[in-house]
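U., I forgot to send this yesterday:
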Amino acid sequence: MISYLQIDKLTKSFGDLVLFEDITFGIAQGQKVGLIAKNGTGKTTLLNIIAGKEDYDSGAVVFRNDLRVGYLEQTPHYPDGMTVLQACFYSPNETVRLIAEYEQAMASGDSANLEDILLRMDNLKAWDYEQRAKQILGQLKIHDFDQRVETLSGGQLKRVALANVLITDPELIILDEPTNHLDLEMTEWLEGYLSRANISILMVTHDRYFLDRVCSEIIEIDRKQIYQYKGNYSYYLEKRQERIEALNAEVDRASNLLRKELDWMRRQPQARGTKAKYRIDAFYELEKKAKQHHEAGNVNLDVKASYIGSKIFEAEHVSKRFGDLKIVDDFNYIFARYEKMGIVGNNGTGKSTFIKMLMGEVEPDSGRFDIGETVRFGYYSQEGLKFDEQMKVIDVVQNIAEYVDLGDGRKMGVSQFLNYFLFAPEKQHSYVYKLSGGEKRRLYLCTVLMRSPNFLVLDEPTNDLDIVTLNVLEEYLRNFKGCAIVVSHDRYFMDKVVDHLLVFRGNADIKDFPGNYTQYREWKEVQDQLEKEAEAARLAKMAPAVAKTSRPEKEQKKKLTFKERKEFEALEAEISQLEAEKAELETAMSSGTLSNDELLAKSVRIAQVMEEIDEKTMRWLELSEKDV
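Result:
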Protein backbone atom coordinates (compact mmCIF):
# COMPACT_ATOMS: atom_id res chain seq x y z
CA MET A 1 0.00 0.00 0.00
CA ILE A 2 1.05 3.58 -0.68
CA SER A 3 2.11 5.40 2.49
CA TYR A 4 0.20 8.65 3.00
CA LEU A 5 1.48 9.66 6.44
CA GLN A 6 4.36 8.50 8.62
CA ILE A 7 4.85 9.51 12.27
CA ASP A 8 8.34 8.66 13.53
CA LYS A 9 9.47 8.82 17.19
CA LEU A 10 7.19 11.75 17.99
CA THR A 11 7.37 13.30 21.48
CA LYS A 12 5.23 16.07 22.94
CA SER A 13 5.21 17.55 26.43
CA PHE A 14 3.88 20.60 28.26
CA GLY A 15 6.44 21.43 30.93
CA ASP A 16 6.77 18.36 33.14
CA LEU A 17 3.68 16.70 31.60
CA VAL A 18 4.69 14.26 28.85
CA LEU A 19 1.70 13.39 26.65
CA PHE A 20 3.43 10.82 24.44
CA GLU A 21 7.02 9.77 23.89
CA ASP A 22 8.79 8.31 20.82
CA ILE A 23 5.52 7.13 19.22
CA THR A 24 5.67 5.72 15.69
CA PHE A 25 2.85 4.75 13.30
CA GLY A 26 1.67 5.33 9.75
CA ILE A 27 -1.47 5.73 7.63
CA ALA A 28 -1.55 4.08 4.20
CA GLN A 29 -3.89 4.48 1.25
CA GLY A 30 -7.36 3.17 2.07
CA GLN A 31 -6.75 2.74 5.82
CA LYS A 32 -9.44 3.95 8.19
CA VAL A 33 -7.93 4.37 11.66
CA GLY A 34 -9.57 5.31 14.95
CA LEU A 35 -7.50 6.98 17.70
CA ILE A 36 -8.46 6.16 21.29
CA ALA A 37 -7.12 7.60 24.55
CA LYS A 38 -8.36 8.98 27.84
CA ASN A 39 -9.14 12.70 28.03
CA GLY A 40 -6.07 14.81 28.68
CA THR A 41 -3.60 12.29 27.22
CA GLY A 42 -3.05 14.04 23.90
CA LYS A 43 -5.57 12.95 21.26
CA THR A 44 -6.46 16.42 19.99
CA THR A 45 -2.86 17.60 20.48
CA LEU A 46 -1.62 14.76 18.25
CA LEU A 47 -4.16 15.64 15.53
CA ASN A 48 -3.15 19.31 15.72
CA ILE A 49 0.52 18.35 15.38
CA ILE A 50 -0.22 16.21 12.32
CA ALA A 51 -2.27 19.07 10.81
CA GLY A 52 0.64 21.48 11.39
CA LYS A 53 -1.24 23.60 13.92
CA GLU A 54 0.97 22.76 16.92
CA ASP A 55 4.68 22.20 17.55
CA TYR A 56 6.28 19.06 18.97
CA ASP A 57 9.44 18.34 20.95
CA SER A 58 11.12 15.80 18.69
CA GLY A 59 10.43 13.28 15.94
CA ALA A 60 9.06 13.65 12.41
CA VAL A 61 5.69 13.99 10.64
CA VAL A 62 6.01 13.14 6.93
CA PHE A 63 3.23 13.28 4.30
CA ARG A 64 3.38 11.89 0.78
CA ASN A 65 4.14 14.66 -1.70
CA ASP A 66 1.09 16.58 -2.99
CA LEU A 67 -1.29 14.64 -0.72
CA ARG A 68 -4.68 16.34 -0.33
CA VAL A 69 -5.44 16.46 3.42
CA GLY A 70 -8.66 17.61 5.12
CA TYR A 71 -8.82 18.39 8.85
CA LEU A 72 -12.01 18.72 10.90
CA GLU A 73 -11.05 20.46 14.13
CA GLN A 74 -12.95 19.91 17.37
CA THR A 75 -13.70 23.65 17.43
CA PRO A 76 -13.43 24.97 13.85
CA HIS A 77 -12.89 28.63 12.96
CA TYR A 78 -13.50 30.67 9.79
CA PRO A 79 -12.80 34.36 9.09
CA ASP A 80 -15.61 36.72 10.16
CA GLY A 81 -17.71 37.97 7.28
CA MET A 82 -17.50 34.70 5.38
CA THR A 83 -20.84 33.23 4.32
CA VAL A 84 -21.88 29.63 4.93
CA LEU A 85 -21.50 28.92 1.20
CA GLN A 86 -17.97 30.36 1.13
CA ALA A 87 -17.02 28.33 4.21
CA CYS A 88 -18.42 25.10 2.74
CA PHE A 89 -16.31 25.55 -0.41
CA TYR A 90 -13.28 27.05 1.34
CA SER A 91 -10.48 25.27 -0.56
CA PRO A 92 -7.53 25.82 -2.91
CA ASN A 93 -9.05 23.12 -5.19
CA GLU A 94 -9.89 24.83 -8.52
CA THR A 95 -12.97 22.68 -9.13
CA VAL A 96 -14.33 23.34 -5.66
CA ARG A 97 -13.83 27.10 -6.06
CA LEU A 98 -15.63 27.00 -9.43
CA ILE A 99 -18.60 25.14 -7.92
CA ALA A 100 -18.76 27.76 -5.17
CA GLU A 101 -18.82 30.47 -7.86
CA TYR A 102 -21.62 28.64 -9.69
CA GLU A 103 -23.69 28.15 -6.50
CA GLN A 104 -23.24 31.83 -5.59
CA ALA A 105 -24.43 32.92 -9.05
CA MET A 106 -27.49 30.64 -8.87
CA ALA A 107 -28.37 31.72 -5.32
CA SER A 108 -28.08 35.45 -6.12
CA GLY A 109 -29.74 35.26 -9.56
CA ASP A 110 -26.69 36.91 -11.15
CA SER A 111 -26.54 35.58 -14.72
CA ALA A 112 -23.90 38.02 -16.00
CA ASN A 113 -21.05 35.51 -15.86
CA LEU A 114 -23.16 32.34 -15.84
CA GLU A 115 -22.36 31.35 -19.43
CA ASP A 116 -18.62 31.56 -18.75
CA ILE A 117 -19.02 29.61 -15.47
CA LEU A 118 -21.03 26.86 -17.23
CA LEU A 119 -18.37 26.53 -19.93
CA ARG A 120 -15.62 26.20 -17.32
CA MET A 121 -17.75 23.66 -15.42
CA ASP A 122 -17.98 21.58 -18.60
CA ASN A 123 -14.23 21.82 -19.24
CA LEU A 124 -13.39 20.70 -15.70
CA LYS A 125 -16.12 17.99 -15.72
CA ALA A 126 -17.40 19.53 -12.49
CA TRP A 127 -21.06 18.50 -12.70
CA ASP A 128 -20.71 15.17 -10.87
CA TYR A 129 -18.63 16.96 -8.26
CA GLU A 130 -21.31 19.62 -7.88
CA GLN A 131 -24.06 17.01 -7.41
CA ARG A 132 -22.01 15.28 -4.70
CA ALA A 133 -21.44 18.62 -2.95
CA LYS A 134 -25.19 19.32 -2.98
CA GLN A 135 -25.90 15.87 -1.57
CA ILE A 136 -23.45 16.51 1.31
CA LEU A 137 -24.96 19.93 2.08
CA GLY A 138 -28.47 18.47 2.00
CA GLN A 139 -27.66 15.53 4.27
CA LEU A 140 -26.05 17.90 6.79
CA LYS A 141 -29.14 20.18 6.58
CA ILE A 142 -27.17 23.22 5.39
CA HIS A 143 -29.61 25.38 3.42
CA ASP A 144 -29.06 29.04 4.35
CA PHE A 145 -26.01 29.77 2.19
CA ASP A 146 -25.95 33.52 2.88
CA GLN A 147 -25.76 33.35 6.69
CA ARG A 148 -22.51 34.72 8.15
CA VAL A 149 -20.32 32.17 9.95
CA GLU A 150 -19.93 34.38 13.04
CA THR A 151 -23.71 34.11 13.67
CA LEU A 152 -23.71 30.29 13.67
CA SER A 153 -23.99 28.18 16.82
CA GLY A 154 -21.14 25.82 17.65
CA GLY A 155 -23.12 22.87 16.28
CA GLN A 156 -24.00 24.65 13.03
CA LEU A 157 -20.37 25.69 12.52
CA LYS A 158 -19.19 22.10 13.11
CA ARG A 159 -21.57 20.87 10.38
CA VAL A 160 -20.37 23.57 7.98
CA ALA A 161 -16.75 22.59 8.68
CA LEU A 162 -17.58 18.90 8.13
CA ALA A 163 -19.23 19.76 4.80
CA ASN A 164 -16.14 21.76 3.85
CA VAL A 165 -13.84 18.80 4.60
CA LEU A 166 -15.95 16.31 2.63
CA ILE A 167 -16.58 18.60 -0.36
CA THR A 168 -12.90 19.46 -0.86
CA ASP A 169 -12.26 15.82 -1.85
CA PRO A 170 -9.19 15.03 0.32
CA GLU A 171 -7.26 11.77 0.03
CA LEU A 172 -6.65 11.72 3.81
CA ILE A 173 -9.21 13.06 6.30
CA ILE A 174 -8.31 13.84 9.92
CA LEU A 175 -11.48 14.06 12.02
CA ASP A 176 -11.72 15.25 15.64
CA GLU A 177 -15.11 14.19 17.06
CA PRO A 178 -17.01 14.31 13.74
CA THR A 179 -20.33 13.15 15.25
CA ASN A 180 -20.53 15.88 17.91
CA HIS A 181 -23.54 18.13 17.15
CA LEU A 182 -24.89 15.75 14.48
CA ASP A 183 -28.34 14.30 15.00
CA LEU A 184 -28.92 10.56 14.59
CA GLU A 185 -29.99 10.83 10.96
CA MET A 186 -26.86 12.79 10.01
CA THR A 187 -24.61 10.44 12.01
CA GLU A 188 -25.97 7.37 10.23
CA TRP A 189 -25.57 9.08 6.84
CA LEU A 190 -21.96 10.07 7.63
CA GLU A 191 -21.25 6.55 8.87
CA GLY A 192 -22.39 5.08 5.56
CA TYR A 193 -20.62 7.77 3.51
CA LEU A 194 -17.22 7.26 5.15
CA SER A 195 -17.56 3.46 5.11
CA ARG A 196 -18.08 3.45 1.34
CA ALA A 197 -15.72 6.29 0.41
CA ASN A 198 -12.32 5.39 -1.01
CA ILE A 199 -10.39 7.68 1.34
CA SER A 200 -7.97 7.28 4.22
CA ILE A 201 -9.13 8.37 7.66
CA LEU A 202 -7.56 9.15 11.02
CA MET A 203 -10.23 10.09 13.53
CA VAL A 204 -11.03 10.60 17.19
CA THR A 205 -14.60 9.82 18.21
CA HIS A 206 -16.46 8.62 21.31
CA ASP A 207 -19.25 7.13 19.14
CA ARG A 208 -18.46 3.43 19.45
CA TYR A 209 -20.94 2.20 16.81
CA PHE A 210 -19.45 4.76 14.41
CA LEU A 211 -15.92 3.64 15.31
CA ASP A 212 -16.83 -0.03 14.93
CA ARG A 213 -18.51 0.35 11.53
CA VAL A 214 -16.13 2.83 9.87
CA CYS A 215 -12.64 1.97 11.15
CA SER A 216 -10.61 -1.10 10.23
CA GLU A 217 -7.76 -0.33 12.64
CA ILE A 218 -7.51 1.17 16.14
CA ILE A 219 -4.56 3.07 17.62
CA GLU A 220 -4.51 3.61 21.38
CA ILE A 221 -2.38 6.06 23.37
CA ASP A 222 -1.81 4.52 26.79
CA ARG A 223 0.88 5.51 29.28
CA LYS A 224 2.56 7.77 26.69
CA GLN A 225 2.97 4.89 24.20
CA ILE A 226 1.16 3.73 21.06
CA TYR A 227 -0.59 0.35 20.72
CA GLN A 228 -1.97 -0.74 17.35
CA TYR A 229 -4.85 -3.18 16.74
CA LYS A 230 -5.57 -4.45 13.21
CA GLY A 231 -9.33 -4.58 13.49
CA ASN A 232 -12.43 -2.57 14.39
CA TYR A 233 -13.54 -1.41 17.84
CA SER A 234 -14.94 -4.82 18.85
CA TYR A 235 -11.63 -6.46 17.95
CA TYR A 236 -9.75 -3.74 19.86
CA LEU A 237 -11.75 -4.39 23.05
CA GLU A 238 -10.93 -8.08 22.91
CA LYS A 239 -7.22 -7.67 22.18
CA ARG A 240 -6.75 -4.80 24.62
CA GLN A 241 -8.09 -6.95 27.43
CA GLU A 242 -5.67 -9.71 26.46
CA ARG A 243 -2.80 -7.18 26.51
CA ILE A 244 -3.74 -5.87 29.95
CA GLU A 245 -4.09 -9.38 31.38
CA ALA A 246 -0.69 -10.36 29.94
CA LEU A 247 0.90 -7.19 31.34
CA ASN A 248 -0.62 -7.74 34.77
CA ALA A 249 0.53 -11.38 34.80
CA GLU A 250 4.05 -10.23 33.94
CA VAL A 251 3.91 -7.57 36.67
CA ASP A 252 2.71 -10.16 39.21
CA ARG A 253 5.67 -12.39 38.35
CA ALA A 254 8.00 -9.40 38.64
CA SER A 255 6.51 -8.56 42.06
CA ASN A 256 7.19 -12.10 43.33
CA LEU A 257 10.77 -11.96 42.08
CA LEU A 258 11.15 -8.49 43.54
CA ARG A 259 10.38 -9.75 47.04
CA LYS A 260 13.20 -12.29 46.73
CA GLU A 261 15.60 -9.76 45.26
CA LEU A 262 14.73 -7.25 47.99
CA ASP A 263 15.65 -9.83 50.59
CA TRP A 264 18.95 -10.43 48.79
CA MET A 265 19.68 -6.71 48.55
CA ARG A 266 19.13 -6.22 52.27
CA ARG A 267 21.47 -9.09 53.16
CA GLN A 268 24.37 -7.74 51.09
CA PRO A 269 27.30 -5.99 52.77
CA GLN A 270 27.61 -2.26 52.21
CA ALA A 271 30.59 -2.65 49.84
CA ARG A 272 29.25 -4.95 47.12
CA GLY A 273 31.55 -6.68 44.71
CA THR A 274 31.43 -6.07 40.95
CA LYS A 275 30.23 -9.64 40.35
CA ALA A 276 26.91 -8.73 41.94
CA LYS A 277 26.41 -5.53 39.92
CA TYR A 278 24.30 -7.25 37.24
CA ARG A 279 21.99 -8.48 39.98
CA ILE A 280 21.68 -5.02 41.51
CA ASP A 281 20.80 -3.62 38.07
CA ALA A 282 18.25 -6.40 37.63
CA PHE A 283 16.73 -5.50 40.98
CA TYR A 284 16.06 -1.94 39.86
CA GLU A 285 14.58 -3.17 36.56
CA LEU A 286 12.29 -5.52 38.48
CA GLU A 287 11.27 -2.70 40.80
CA LYS A 288 10.36 -0.56 37.80
CA LYS A 289 8.34 -3.37 36.19
CA ALA A 290 6.54 -4.24 39.43
CA LYS A 291 5.16 -0.70 39.60
CA GLN A 292 3.59 -0.97 36.13
CA HIS A 293 0.40 -2.72 37.24
CA HIS A 294 -2.22 -1.63 34.73
CA GLU A 295 -5.53 -0.29 35.92
CA ALA A 296 -8.20 0.41 33.32
CA GLY A 297 -8.90 3.75 34.94
CA ASN A 298 -12.32 2.75 36.20
CA VAL A 299 -14.23 5.43 38.01
CA ASN A 300 -16.08 4.19 41.09
CA LEU A 301 -19.51 5.81 40.96
CA ASP A 302 -21.14 3.83 43.76
CA VAL A 303 -22.70 6.97 45.18
CA LYS A 304 -25.90 6.78 47.17
CA ALA A 305 -29.06 8.18 45.57
CA SER A 306 -31.39 9.86 48.05
CA TYR A 307 -34.83 8.35 48.70
CA ILE A 308 -37.41 8.91 45.95
CA GLY A 309 -41.14 8.47 46.42
CA SER A 310 -43.67 6.88 44.09
CA LYS A 311 -44.69 10.19 42.52
CA ILE A 312 -41.99 11.44 40.15
CA PHE A 313 -43.57 13.86 37.68
CA GLU A 314 -46.70 14.17 35.59
CA ALA A 315 -46.94 16.16 32.38
CA GLU A 316 -50.49 17.48 32.15
CA HIS A 317 -51.72 18.85 28.77
CA VAL A 318 -48.36 20.49 28.06
CA SER A 319 -48.11 22.56 24.87
CA LYS A 320 -45.22 24.65 23.57
CA ARG A 321 -44.45 26.30 20.27
CA PHE A 322 -42.06 28.89 18.84
CA GLY A 323 -43.91 30.69 16.05
CA ASP A 324 -44.99 28.04 13.54
CA LEU A 325 -42.74 25.38 15.12
CA LYS A 326 -44.67 23.13 17.49
CA ILE A 327 -42.59 21.37 20.17
CA VAL A 328 -45.33 19.57 22.13
CA ASP A 329 -49.10 19.73 21.74
CA ASP A 330 -51.40 18.63 24.59
CA PHE A 331 -48.72 16.24 25.85
CA ASN A 332 -49.54 13.97 28.80
CA TYR A 333 -47.18 11.56 30.56
CA ILE A 334 -46.80 9.93 33.98
CA PHE A 335 -43.17 9.13 34.79
CA ALA A 336 -42.66 5.90 36.75
CA ARG A 337 -40.38 5.22 39.71
CA TYR A 338 -36.87 4.04 38.63
CA GLU A 339 -37.74 4.68 34.98
CA LYS A 340 -34.83 5.33 32.61
CA MET A 341 -36.01 7.18 29.53
CA GLY A 342 -34.02 8.10 26.43
CA ILE A 343 -35.01 11.07 24.27
CA VAL A 344 -33.92 11.01 20.62
CA GLY A 345 -34.76 12.95 17.49
CA ASN A 346 -33.28 15.22 14.87
CA ASN A 347 -31.88 18.63 15.78
CA GLY A 348 -34.58 21.27 16.12
CA THR A 349 -37.39 18.91 17.13
CA GLY A 350 -37.51 20.22 20.71
CA LYS A 351 -35.64 17.69 22.85
CA SER A 352 -33.68 20.24 24.90
CA THR A 353 -36.71 22.53 25.15
CA PHE A 354 -38.72 19.65 26.64
CA ILE A 355 -35.99 19.09 29.25
CA LYS A 356 -35.84 22.80 30.09
CA MET A 357 -39.61 22.85 30.63
CA LEU A 358 -39.28 19.91 33.02
CA MET A 359 -36.48 21.71 34.89
CA GLY A 360 -38.47 24.95 35.08
CA GLU A 361 -36.08 26.93 32.86
CA VAL A 362 -38.70 27.40 30.10
CA GLU A 363 -42.42 27.94 30.69
CA PRO A 364 -44.90 25.90 28.62
CA ASP A 365 -47.54 27.86 26.71
CA SER A 366 -50.19 25.80 28.47
CA GLY A 367 -50.35 22.82 30.81
CA ARG A 368 -47.83 22.03 33.54
CA PHE A 369 -45.27 19.60 34.96
CA ASP A 370 -46.25 18.38 38.45
CA ILE A 371 -43.04 17.31 40.24
CA GLY A 372 -43.05 14.93 43.24
CA GLU A 373 -41.94 16.35 46.60
CA THR A 374 -39.07 13.87 47.10
CA VAL A 375 -37.49 14.45 43.66
CA ARG A 376 -33.95 15.83 43.76
CA PHE A 377 -32.72 16.63 40.26
CA GLY A 378 -29.15 16.23 39.09
CA TYR A 379 -29.06 18.25 35.85
CA TYR A 380 -26.21 17.93 33.34
CA SER A 381 -26.96 20.51 30.64
CA GLN A 382 -25.25 21.50 27.41
CA GLU A 383 -24.77 25.03 28.77
CA GLY A 384 -23.81 24.00 32.30
CA LEU A 385 -20.04 23.85 31.82
CA LYS A 386 -19.21 27.13 33.57
CA PHE A 387 -16.24 27.20 35.93
CA ASP A 388 -13.97 29.89 37.28
CA GLU A 389 -10.93 29.07 35.15
CA GLN A 390 -8.57 30.40 37.84
CA MET A 391 -9.84 27.99 40.51
CA LYS A 392 -8.16 24.70 41.31
CA VAL A 393 -10.02 21.51 40.48
CA ILE A 394 -10.34 20.44 44.12
CA ASP A 395 -11.67 23.88 45.13
CA VAL A 396 -14.44 23.64 42.51
CA VAL A 397 -15.71 20.46 44.15
CA GLN A 398 -15.16 21.59 47.76
CA ASN A 399 -17.34 24.61 47.08
CA ILE A 400 -20.21 22.15 46.62
CA ALA A 401 -19.57 19.75 49.52
CA GLU A 402 -16.79 18.58 51.84
CA TYR A 403 -17.65 14.91 51.35
CA VAL A 404 -19.83 12.52 49.37
CA ASP A 405 -22.47 10.36 51.07
CA LEU A 406 -22.02 6.69 50.08
CA GLY A 407 -24.83 5.40 52.31
CA ASP A 408 -24.70 3.10 55.36
CA GLY A 409 -22.87 5.83 57.26
CA ARG A 410 -19.94 5.77 54.82
CA LYS A 411 -18.49 9.01 53.54
CA MET A 412 -15.87 9.83 50.92
CA GLY A 413 -13.61 12.85 50.97
CA VAL A 414 -13.45 15.20 48.01
CA SER A 415 -9.90 14.23 47.03
CA GLN A 416 -10.74 10.53 46.98
CA PHE A 417 -13.92 11.24 45.03
CA LEU A 418 -11.96 13.18 42.40
CA ASN A 419 -9.40 10.39 42.23
CA TYR A 420 -12.20 7.99 41.31
CA PHE A 421 -13.00 10.38 38.47
CA LEU A 422 -9.46 9.93 37.10
CA PHE A 423 -8.21 13.19 38.58
CA ALA A 424 -4.82 12.21 40.02
CA PRO A 425 -3.63 14.20 43.08
CA GLU A 426 -1.41 16.47 40.99
CA LYS A 427 -4.32 17.14 38.59
CA GLN A 428 -6.63 18.00 41.52
CA HIS A 429 -4.35 20.89 42.48
CA SER A 430 -4.06 22.09 38.89
CA TYR A 431 -6.06 25.07 37.64
CA VAL A 432 -9.26 24.53 35.65
CA TYR A 433 -7.92 26.43 32.62
CA LYS A 434 -5.23 23.75 32.21
CA LEU A 435 -7.81 20.97 31.75
CA SER A 436 -8.72 19.60 28.34
CA GLY A 437 -12.30 19.96 27.09
CA GLY A 438 -13.06 16.35 28.01
CA GLU A 439 -11.55 16.75 31.50
CA LYS A 440 -13.76 19.80 32.12
CA ARG A 441 -16.78 17.71 31.09
CA ARG A 442 -15.71 14.99 33.51
CA LEU A 443 -15.34 17.56 36.30
CA TYR A 444 -18.82 18.90 35.50
CA LEU A 445 -20.25 15.37 35.67
CA CYS A 446 -18.52 14.94 39.03
CA THR A 447 -20.17 18.10 40.41
CA VAL A 448 -23.60 16.83 39.30
CA LEU A 449 -23.34 13.30 40.71
CA MET A 450 -21.72 14.18 44.04
CA ARG A 451 -24.91 15.91 45.23
CA SER A 452 -26.55 12.43 45.48
CA PRO A 453 -29.54 13.20 43.23
CA ASN A 454 -32.36 10.69 42.80
CA PHE A 455 -33.42 11.91 39.34
CA LEU A 456 -30.67 12.46 36.77
CA VAL A 457 -31.43 14.61 33.74
CA LEU A 458 -28.53 14.36 31.28
CA ASP A 459 -28.65 16.55 28.16
CA GLU A 460 -25.97 15.34 25.70
CA PRO A 461 -23.66 13.91 28.40
CA THR A 462 -21.51 12.00 25.91
CA ASN A 463 -20.06 14.99 24.02
CA ASP A 464 -16.31 15.25 24.70
CA LEU A 465 -16.21 12.44 27.27
CA ASP A 466 -13.66 9.71 26.57
CA ILE A 467 -14.75 6.10 26.11
CA VAL A 468 -13.40 5.03 29.53
CA THR A 469 -15.57 7.60 31.30
CA LEU A 470 -18.56 6.69 29.12
CA ASN A 471 -18.20 3.02 30.08
CA VAL A 472 -18.24 3.95 33.74
CA LEU A 473 -21.17 6.35 33.40
CA GLU A 474 -23.14 3.65 31.56
CA GLU A 475 -22.49 1.15 34.32
CA TYR A 476 -23.48 3.71 36.95
CA LEU A 477 -26.77 4.52 35.18
CA ARG A 478 -27.65 0.85 34.82
CA ASN A 479 -27.25 0.36 38.59
CA PHE A 480 -28.62 3.77 39.60
CA LYS A 481 -31.39 3.45 42.23
CA GLY A 482 -33.27 6.44 40.94
CA CYS A 483 -34.80 7.88 37.76
CA ALA A 484 -33.04 9.14 34.66
CA ILE A 485 -33.80 10.99 31.46
CA VAL A 486 -31.02 10.99 28.88
CA VAL A 487 -30.93 13.11 25.71
CA SER A 488 -28.18 11.83 23.45
CA HIS A 489 -27.16 11.18 19.85
CA ASP A 490 -24.83 8.39 21.03
CA ARG A 491 -26.62 5.21 19.89
CA TYR A 492 -24.31 2.84 21.80
CA PHE A 493 -24.80 4.80 25.02
CA MET A 494 -28.59 4.82 24.63
CA ASP A 495 -28.70 1.09 23.90
CA LYS A 496 -26.91 0.36 27.17
CA VAL A 497 -28.73 2.63 29.61
CA VAL A 498 -32.38 3.29 28.68
CA ASP A 499 -35.55 1.19 29.08
CA HIS A 500 -37.57 3.00 26.45
CA LEU A 501 -37.53 6.05 24.19
CA LEU A 502 -39.46 9.21 23.53
CA VAL A 503 -38.83 9.83 19.83
CA PHE A 504 -39.27 13.48 18.77
CA ARG A 505 -40.20 13.36 15.08
CA GLY A 506 -40.88 17.06 14.60
CA ASN A 507 -43.98 19.28 14.71
CA ALA A 508 -45.05 17.89 18.13
CA ASP A 509 -45.13 14.31 16.78
CA ILE A 510 -43.75 12.31 19.75
CA LYS A 511 -43.69 8.50 19.87
CA ASP A 512 -43.24 6.48 23.06
CA PHE A 513 -41.27 3.38 22.00
CA PRO A 514 -40.79 0.43 24.43
CA GLY A 515 -37.16 -0.46 23.76
CA ASN A 516 -33.67 0.88 23.09
CA TYR A 517 -32.42 2.76 20.03
CA THR A 518 -31.32 -0.23 17.95
CA GLN A 519 -34.68 -1.92 18.50
CA TYR A 520 -36.42 1.31 17.46
CA ARG A 521 -34.35 1.53 14.26
CA GLU A 522 -35.17 -2.09 13.36
CA TRP A 523 -38.87 -1.43 13.98
CA LYS A 524 -38.75 1.80 11.94
CA GLU A 525 -37.06 0.09 8.98
CA VAL A 526 -39.82 -2.53 8.88
CA GLN A 527 -42.48 0.21 9.10
CA ASP A 528 -40.82 2.22 6.32
CA GLN A 529 -40.73 -0.89 4.13
CA LEU A 530 -44.41 -1.62 4.81
CA GLU A 531 -45.34 1.96 3.90
CA LYS A 532 -43.23 1.80 0.74
CA GLU A 533 -44.82 -1.50 -0.23
CA ALA A 534 -48.32 -0.17 0.43
CA GLU A 535 -47.60 2.89 -1.74
CA ALA A 536 -46.24 0.68 -4.53
CA ALA A 537 -49.35 -1.51 -4.36
CA ARG A 538 -51.56 1.60 -4.54
CA LEU A 539 -49.68 2.82 -7.61
CA ALA A 540 -49.97 -0.63 -9.18
CA LYS A 541 -53.75 -0.57 -8.80
CA MET A 542 -53.91 2.94 -10.25
CA ALA A 543 -51.61 2.12 -13.17
CA PRO A 544 -54.19 0.62 -15.59
CA ALA A 545 -56.57 3.57 -15.12
CA VAL A 546 -53.75 6.07 -15.42
CA ALA A 547 -52.47 4.32 -18.54
CA LYS A 548 -55.92 4.52 -20.19
CA THR A 549 -56.48 8.19 -19.41
CA SER A 550 -52.97 9.53 -19.94
CA ARG A 551 -52.35 8.29 -23.49
CA PRO A 552 -54.30 10.36 -26.02
CA GLU A 553 -53.93 7.89 -28.85
CA LYS A 554 -53.35 4.15 -28.60
CA GLU A 555 -51.19 4.03 -31.67
CA GLN A 556 -48.59 6.27 -29.97
CA LYS A 557 -47.78 3.50 -27.44
CA LYS A 558 -44.62 1.51 -27.97
CA LYS A 559 -45.02 -2.18 -28.52
CA LEU A 560 -43.64 -4.75 -26.08
CA THR A 561 -40.97 -6.98 -27.54
CA PHE A 562 -41.42 -10.74 -27.25
CA LYS A 563 -38.88 -10.84 -24.42
CA GLU A 564 -40.59 -7.94 -22.58
CA ARG A 565 -44.02 -9.62 -22.98
CA LYS A 566 -42.67 -12.78 -21.32
CA GLU A 567 -41.09 -10.69 -18.56
CA PHE A 568 -44.37 -8.80 -18.03
CA GLU A 569 -46.33 -12.04 -17.63
CA ALA A 570 -43.68 -13.50 -15.29
CA LEU A 571 -43.70 -10.36 -13.12
CA GLU A 572 -47.40 -10.70 -12.39
CA ALA A 573 -46.88 -14.25 -11.13
CA GLU A 574 -43.74 -13.33 -9.16
CA ILE A 575 -45.40 -10.35 -7.44
CA SER A 576 -48.34 -12.57 -6.49
CA GLN A 577 -46.00 -15.20 -5.00
CA LEU A 578 -44.05 -12.57 -3.06
CA GLU A 579 -47.26 -11.05 -1.70
CA ALA A 580 -48.31 -14.51 -0.49
CA GLU A 581 -44.92 -15.07 1.16
CA LYS A 582 -45.12 -11.67 2.84
CA ALA A 583 -48.56 -12.52 4.25
CA GLU A 584 -47.22 -15.81 5.64
CA LEU A 585 -44.24 -14.04 7.24
CA GLU A 586 -46.50 -11.41 8.83
CA THR A 587 -48.76 -14.14 10.25
CA ALA A 588 -45.78 -16.04 11.68
CA MET A 589 -44.18 -12.90 13.18
CA SER A 590 -47.40 -11.94 14.96
CA SER A 591 -48.11 -15.46 16.26
CA GLY A 592 -45.95 -15.08 19.37
CA THR A 593 -44.58 -18.62 18.97
CA LEU A 594 -41.22 -17.81 17.35
CA SER A 595 -37.89 -17.87 19.15
CA ASN A 596 -35.69 -14.76 19.05
CA ASP A 597 -33.49 -16.27 16.32
CA GLU A 598 -36.51 -17.26 14.23
CA LEU A 599 -38.06 -13.82 14.68
CA LEU A 600 -34.82 -12.12 13.62
CA ALA A 601 -34.49 -14.37 10.54
CA LYS A 602 -38.07 -13.67 9.45
CA SER A 603 -37.62 -9.92 10.06
CA VAL A 604 -34.63 -9.96 7.71
CA ARG A 605 -36.54 -11.99 5.12
CA ILE A 606 -39.67 -9.79 5.17
CA ALA A 607 -37.51 -6.74 4.50
CA GLN A 608 -35.97 -8.55 1.49
CA VAL A 609 -39.41 -9.62 0.23
CA MET A 610 -40.80 -6.09 0.46
CA GLU A 611 -37.80 -4.72 -1.41
CA GLU A 612 -38.30 -7.31 -4.17
CA ILE A 613 -42.02 -6.47 -4.38
CA ASP A 614 -41.14 -2.80 -4.70
CA GLU A 615 -38.59 -3.40 -7.47
CA LYS A 616 -40.79 -5.80 -9.45
CA THR A 617 -43.85 -3.56 -9.11
CA MET A 618 -41.92 -0.59 -10.49
CA ARG A 619 -40.70 -2.71 -13.41
CA TRP A 620 -44.29 -3.93 -14.00
CA LEU A 621 -45.45 -0.31 -14.10
CA GLU A 622 -42.71 0.55 -16.60
CA LEU A 623 -43.68 -2.29 -18.93
CA SER A 624 -47.39 -1.58 -18.54
CA GLU A 625 -46.81 1.82 -20.19
CA LYS A 626 -46.17 -0.08 -23.44
CA ASP A 627 -48.81 -1.74 -25.63
CA VAL A 628 -49.26 -5.36 -24.62
